[in-house]
Amino acid sequence: MDTKSTLICSRCKVKMKPVEVTFKYLKRSFRHEVLRCPECGQVYIPEELAKGRMAEVEAVLEEK
After folding, report:
1. Beta strands 28-36 and 17-25: pairing type?
2. Which one, of 37, 33, 32, lies nearest residue 17 by Cα?
3. What structural domains does the chain harbor?
4. Ranges under pLDDT 70 in the chain
5. Cβ contacts of residue 40 below 8 Å, gap of 6+?
6. Which of 11, 20, 21, 41 is most buried, judged by most C-beta within 10 A?
7. How far apart are CA 46 and CA 21, in angstroms?
8. Among 58, 57, 12, which Cα is nearest to 35's?
């Protein structure tokens, strides 16, 4: 099952669409494609992104 084509917003009950989003942390930012509701803007962050890329960026920035 392809998550990108099947997730529905829990608020609006519409299909979420992939968009590139800017994440900001400690005055730094990075861009990544995630699913976002076209109605309310709620973003879905998959576990692998949270534990992977986001955790790496957080660790690097906190070391500085």
Report:
1. antiparallel
2. 37
3. 3-63 (3.10.20)
4. 1-5, 53-54, 57-58, 60-64
5. 9, 11, 12
6. 21
7. 13
8. 12
